[in-house]
Amino acid sequence: MNHCITQGRRGFADGLRGARRRSRGGRPIPCVRKFPMSSSDHIHVPDGLAESYSRSGGEEGRAWIAGLPALVARCVDRWELKRDGGVRSGEASLVVPVLRADGTRAALKLQMPREETTAALIGLRAWGGDGMVRLLDHDEESSTMLLERLDGSRTLASVEDDDEAMGVLAGLLNRLHSVPAPPGLRGLGEIAGAMVEEVPSAVDSLADPEDRSRLRGWASAVAELVGEPGDRVLHWDLHYENVLAAEREPWLAIDPEPLVGDPGFDLWPALDTGWERIEATGDARRVVRRRFDLLTEALELDRGRAAGWTLARLLQNTLWDIEDGLTAIAPSQIAVAEALAKP
User: Of 211, 237, 262, 272, which is the active-site residue?
Assistant: First the structure.
């Protein structure tokens, strides 16, 4: 697969892209210690994180995991921090609650240095805490971030009213998209163009002729948009699990994977988030359509372009699935496409 499709992420990174592709599987997994911790304690790396790096990163990933406790200790000493609770982890990062010297609650986020961690730092600095978790400090060499502490136990998924939750997402997206694009981020035009170029060699991997036709159709729609890719800073993965309760504001976004492009490319995670809950309604297409209507109205987006860039996300997801050995388009992807096709 062309490197541009995944912002140049290959090998180890390929195994960690599931959270963005599914948009609903990224909630941190608690790993709570049963006794008080000090900066001298040897940190326990959650099994799931260690297995993820070992499986997808090979020797490089295992070496990073082995050095993680020492890295935490160095960062704690460097920034004069005190450990303050059990660690949490997702598929790719470790989050360590800490207290700063002045008593301020913060969190260390440690992730193996990659292109996406560099992009995240660029984005966090550009947003400056506007709708986004605030970056307090960072270590360029290790990509370690010191972030403001949010409530990791309460995500936007806890809001039962879907329209209310979509309103929160729309408000955050509007703020994130309003920031001028900083230098150093990849552009959507390059990524989308690479996807379109990949389709002829990938499409025959799909077993169903209808799926092959869908993929070609999505690629054609994206090809029409590539010449005007947009110039906004995008989050790329803003869904319910990537919005946490906060103290300075009710809700803030986390875990950005920034790139520069059209805001329509940022809608799919919001359309797809909480898919099990969507399916439980018995009419997934209606829910997706309502979400699309709410988001495009709130963000004042051109509906046709927003639909086209959402098809780009479906195209990207399916190309990833094909690379992973799947031979059919996921039903959820088809449902989203059909919802957008309704007049």
Answer: 237
Q: Is the pLDDT of residue 6 over 60?
A: no
Is 256 within 8 Å of 132 (Cβ atoms)?
yes
CB neighbourhood size of 94 (10 A): 25
137 lies in the same domain as 213: no
Same domain for 233 and 91: no
Query: What pLDDT shows up at residue 41?
Result: 58
pLDDT in tens, 284-314: 999 999 999 999 999 999 999 999 999 999 9
Q: Which residues contact 273 (CB under 8 A, 6 or more apart)?
A: 23, 24, 157, 239, 240, 241
Look-up: residue for tokens 């639909």? Answer: 307
Find where tokens 């370690």 sit.
Answer: 144
Query: Mean of the per-residue pLDDT values for the chain?
Result: 89
The angle subtended at Cα 74 by Cα 47 and Cα 134, nearest 5°, is: 80
The two structure tokens encoding residue 284: 């997934």
Domain of residue 337, CATH code: 3.90.1200.10
pLDDT digit string, tens, across residues 208-253: 999 999 999 999 999 999 999 999 999 999 999 999 999 999 999 9
- What residue numbers bound the domain in which 180 lies? 155-341
How many distinct helices (H) and strands (E) make up the chain?
12, 12
309 burial level (CB within 10 Å; 0-12, 13-18, 19+): buried
pTM score, whole prediction:
0.88
Q: Which pLDDT belongs to residue 23?
A: 38
Residues 117 and 181 in one domain: no
Residue ending a domain, among 152, 181, 207, is 152
The count of structural domains within the chain is: 2
Q: Is 262 a catalytic residue?
A: no
